[in-house]
Amino acid sequence: MVVSMRWLSLVRWIVYSGRRRCAPALIAAALIAVFGQLVPAAPTEQGSVSGTVSGTVSGTVTIRKRLTRPAIAATVPSYQRGVGVPLGVSPKGSAIVGGSGSAGDWLAEESARVVVWVESLAGGEPDVAARSPGISASIQQVGRRFWPEVVAIPVGGTVSFPNLDPIFHNVFSLSKPKDFDLGNYPMGSSKQVTFQKPGIVYVNCHLHPNMTATVVVVPGSRFTRLGKDGTFSILGIPQGDYELVLWHRAVGAVRRKLKINEGADLHFNFVLPDVDSSKLTGIGGFD
């Protein structure tokens, strides 16, 4: 392309002018005038962004027998002022179906106590969603029980503890990942706790020894619960080395190592209680 001497002179004047603050903008304008457009940026390489290569982990959990002992009803103390709340009896509209101490479906109950997740072996989770303050769960105090008995949240998640009983309840934990005591509070009140460390947090009530619940604080955001048929599936796992962890309060944590490659679709079968004790990592803990 032939460029006139007039335009070349204009460019030289801009480059060597004393107006240095505006020189870059003037140079750009001159180049556009001379060549019609600036040189376009190099195209972004597709598929090179971390996390775009992912796989799926699925499986089936077979529970052979009841794993949790039925809760024992506590006596009615004087502070309840004659108001007896039978264990496991829920008020109208509550979320309870069956449950320990009742004639519920024990297999469904045990399945509801299982949490499954994948844990990175690289020392950290590859996705920033692992610490999401927007994720929350709720454990009701109803029928002199905590319901549900097990909830799972990622690090940074929050659990609320509403009291739906016409009596006082208390919520506390002495667990290492998170110890707290919310004190006694009446029906209609609710308090909440945010969990900043991964681990197993056991929750109790000072006023009712039979009341227990568990908060599973997962180190990443890739976790799930069992379906009614005992199956699970975790999608979109970035390429890398992981452990698949299955946790049940009465069994502990069962771990299986896995490697995610491009398009991986891995399937695992678990049986509880696991006859291979070498896979157990301690009752109720990650370690």
CATH-assigned homologous superfamily of the largest domain: Cupredoxins -  blue copper proteins
Helix content: 10-25%
Total helices: the number is 3
Tell me the total number of β-strands.
17
What features would you describe in this structure?
With 287 residues, the chain is mostly beta strands. It folds into two domains: 5-35, no CATH class; 54-279, Immunoglobulin-like (Sandwich). 11% of the residues lie in helices and 36% in strands. The protein has helices at 5-16, 23-35, 106-111, and strands at residues 54-63, 114-120, 136-138, 140-142, 145-147, 150-154, 158-162, 169-174, 179-185, 190-194, 199-204, 212-218, 223-225, 231-238, 240-248, 252-260, 265-272. The strands form six sheets. Strands 13-2-15-16 form a four-stranded antiparallel beta sheet, with no helix packed on it. The protein has a three-stranded mixed beta sheet with strand order 14-1-17. Strands 3-7-10 form a three-stranded mixed beta sheet, with no helix packed on it. Helix 1 (5-16) packs antiparallel against helix 2. The longest helix has 13 residues, at 23-35. Residues 1-5, 18-52, 78-82, 89-103, 126-130 and 277-287 have low confidence and may be disordered.
